[in-house]
Design goal:
Two copies of one chain form a homodimer.
Chain A: H1 11-25, H2 37-44, H3 48-60, E1 64-67, E2 71-74, H4 77-81, E3 86-91, H5 99-112, E4 116-121, H6 126-138, E5 143-146, H7 158-166, E6 171-174, E7 186-189, H8 191-204, E8 210-215, H9 219-234, E9 244-247, H10 255-263, E10 272-275, H11 278-290, E11 300-302, E12 319-320, H12 324-341, E13 350-352, E14 356-357
Parallel strand pairs in A: 3-4, 3-5, 5-6, 6-7, 7-13, 8-9, 8-10, 10-11
Antiparallel strand pairs in A: 1-2, 12-14
Chain A binds a DNA duplex (30 and 30 nucleotides) through α3.
Chain lengths: 375, 375
DNA sequence: TGATAAAACTTGTACGCACATATTTACAAG
DNA sequence: CTTGTAAATATGTGCGTACAAGTTTTATCA
């Protein structure tokens, strides 16, 4: 396009400029109805067709929108120009047991509204997360649903989130949330309460030496650990760092397994293990079994997420339900709400209540349980 | 803007689409001069004003530019649209046990090349597939990887694939392929051979009455069935339609289960069941167990896809390996190749060799096996 | 032959009219 | 009070004309 007619006194250009001025200056505000084409035609003493040309330009530029039969209205400037109908979803893992159902929930809500999903994954690396965001900033997207990578660690690319704010691209965190951005809209589980509930459950079964295996680099791990500690303290059980294992994304396959196998060598050091999630729980079970211990006869084990994963030999984990699809739906709806109404109104954050799912991986343990560890 | 006038035959819209088509298809190339407004007006038998409206829209969209006094020209921009770095992936199911790893394979290849994935899912409905394609045609994408919905049934929206060809948007089929488009690039498993292999394996174990449960509405089901028939014929076993069950997407949860339970009432009617996939195999196993039959002691059961799904009570399915990640990678690489080199060179189709995965769901059956069906 | 003016194109601006179609309002009938 | 209908009003489509203002081609003259 050229439209370098800034100096000339073309009628359609003048009226266009005039109306634009009124919109930008605030004389005509978002949602206000403009005078009808005939009124403008009279007012400016020009033909309706010329008025239409001016209005068409403003509409193209996103300043106004017309509704057939109703009139022409001032649009919410930035908001209405976002019509790519693309939403980006940034996840940590693709083949994770959580992801498919979460994205299915997101998809079902967004597809119904005519949106398309752009998928990105970070493999839980902050570098790749930054790269994803940079790529997305180049693209035409209306909003982002993001599962932060290593949400526990200080976020080094705040500037990118700042840019999202500047560009007025709304975003919703799921699963976790950087501490620096904890005021931003997010949908996550009450992991602290979940950790508390499942630990309390073990205590109620008579366990006294409850080990814990937690992921160190995301918020979920921190919160589940916090709940674990709360439950112990409430029951007057001393927190024993000797039987708490922290691991990072990179060594999730080996570290918990090896630590637990090492711990299992000391008889009676634990009578239960609270695990970060079901996946970790299976690693722990593998380690315990190789050490000759039986689940749950010798050691009770709990998971988190209710993955219903390949459970070897009829063992069903006692775990915390993860409303995967629901979480996706809620995040999508929150995002739609943000896109429609802006960041103004009300409470944006959703905290999902955890729910205990009973399996057969835990057992009632009486006072003298410690004797029958390793028969 | 709305411009949702896709269906109507508005004159300015038609001529606009017509010209756009010519530009995108390459009939009008970058730099070419378009017919003058008066010529178009004569040619299409409409007024010059209406032609101007159509041209204005194309100019707004960046397809053409006008030079005062000289004419209207096709802009270079068309070529640039092929650099959106967006690839669409259209799948049937999101939470399917195959999908996550396939898309992970796709993602790993495409992300490395700087592409982003746009995700669409059809829930195996052809209507939704058509809708997805229509939406994608509106968007800025460089290529598509598509798992066709109900690939066995005649494809009713060939026109959309034709449009992809016109717009020169390359696409690769995975998992299945419409018979009308079987010459198009695709990456799929040799399902016929897979069905043949697994049936032959059962025959080699001494089975004589091998039932089959197949999905009727996709190519995979047809091909696995074809292999099943081939193996039977090769072994001189008569094909018995009484013990072959066909089901559709919609009743995948109930139909196989009920048919097998009905069949199981007749003692000795079958000594093995070849199933469309692992998911179906589990439904079949559930039905057989409820009829009082033991797997594999009374009836051997095979799956397909090697899903390693929640296997009840230590049962591991004998199945066919599904190289999910590899399949995704191959499809992505094939698509990249198409985008770089066009459709010209060499063999585009990839047929993955099936591989037998032995579990404990099948057993050697001696000649007089039929006695011990139902003890 | 070569410069120049005129003619014949091109797109751009501006206005007019008629009718289609969607929405709101007013009013009357039940 | 509800419902149906008609009128008024809004934008949307489509056509026609006239003239303005650039660019290219053609005809003309020195």
């Amino acid at each position: 396009m050229k439209e370098s007619n800034s100096g000339k006194q073309l009628k359609y250009f003048q009226i266009m400029e005039d109306l634009k001025e009124q919109i930008v200056s605030g004389k005509i505000q978002a949602g206000d109805k403009l005078p009808s084409e005939n009124e403008l035609s009279k007012e400016y003493q020009i033909s309706r067709q010329t008025v239409r040309k001016a209005l068409a330009m403003l509409q193209n530029a996103g300043y106004i929108y017309a509704e057939h039969g109703r009139g022409t209205f001032c649009s919410e400037l930035v908001r209405h120009t976002r019509t790519s109908k693309n939403i980006a979803v940034v996840t940590t893992y693709l083949s994770d047991y959580i992801f498919p159902r979460v994205i299915q929930g997101i998809d079902s809500v967004l597809t119904a509204e005519g949106y398309s999903i752009m998928l990105k994954n970070t493999r839980n690396s902050r570098g790749r997360e930054a790269q994803c965001l940079e790529e997305l900033l180049q693209k035409d997207i209306d909003g982002i649903i993001i599962e932060p990578s290593k949400s526990q660690i200080f976020c080094k690319h705040m500037n990118l989130y700042q840019k999202l704010d500047d560009y007025q691209i709304p975003y919703v965190f799921i699963q976790g949330c950087f501490s620096q951005l904890k005021d931003k809209p997010h949908v996550l589980m009450d992991d602290c309460k979940g950790g508390y509930m499942i630990t309390k459950y073990l205590i109620s079964l008579g366990h006294k030496k409850i080990a814990g295996v937690f992921k160190a680099d995301d918020m979920q791990g921190q919160n589940r650990h916090k709940g674990y500690v709360m439950a112990l303290q409430e029951a007057g059980i001393l927190y024993d760092p000797e039987i708490v294992v922290w691991y990072h994304t990179e060594d999730r396959k080996i570290h918990p397994y090896e630590c637990i196998r090492e711990m299992a060598k000391k008889p009676g050091i634990m009578d239960a293990v609270v695990c970060y999630n079901d996946q970790t729980a299976f690693e722990v079970i593998r380690a315990l079994r190789e050490a000759g211990l039986k689940i749950p006869e010798n050691v009770s084990v709990t998971g988190y997420d209710n993955s219903r994963m390949p459970n070897t030999e009829g063992l069903h984990l006692t775990t915390i339900a993860h409303p995967q699809e629901k979480l996706g739906e809620m995040a999508a709806e929150l995002l739609l709400d943000l896109m429609r109404n802006g960041e103004t109104d009300g409470e944006k954050n959703v905290l999902i209540e955890p729910e205990l799912v009973l399996g057969n991986s835990c057992i009632q343990r009486d006072a003298e349980c410690n004797k029958n560890v390793k028969e």
